[in-house]
């Protein structure tokens, strides 16, 4: 008798488990690169980087499911990076195109992770900007000391 062990692949938002893992890994690497450069990025730029680095189909932001998918992906990347970032949510580096703020998903994620997110718009803006600044500082390249000779 031959036993067959069939492994069921998890599919998230139409993406296989292996594809999702590649997207998460590529997304994390891209966000770390942005942090090292002391920059933020947009959802559009992140999406293009994911397509380029993983050779997978991009997310279509006109579709509710794809907007939800990128949000879940960013949540996973943030959760997977918490130790490395010292408890900061690396997804703070992703903001809406041509705006100076994160998307509402960032604030929801922060609240769900127990962070004290202010209830008013000005307070949330400061919370987000402080988060971005702390990520930039955390990933800032160390500069070699100048010789005094």
Q: How is this structure best described in words?
A:
- The protein has one domain (14-139).
- Helix content is 55%, strand content 5%.
- It has five helices and four strands; from the N terminus they run ββαβααβαα.
- Strand 1 and strand 2 (15-16) form a beta hairpin.
- It is globular and about 45 Å long.
- It starts with 10 loop residues before the first strand and ends in a 10-residue tail after the last helix.
- Using only C-alpha atoms, the radius of gyration works out to 18 Å
| Proportion of beta-strand residues | 5-15%
Stretches where pLDDT is under 50 for at least 5 consecutive residues are 1-6
Tally of helical runs: 5
End-to-end Cα distance, whole Å, is: 78 Å
Could you give the order of the helices and strands?
EEHEHHEHH
Mean pLDDT over the full residue set: 90
Q: Which overall shape is indicated by the principal axes computed on the Cα atoms?
A: globular
Q: In order across it, which strands form the biggest sheet?
A: 1-2
DSSP, total strands? 4
Portion of residues within helices: 55-70%
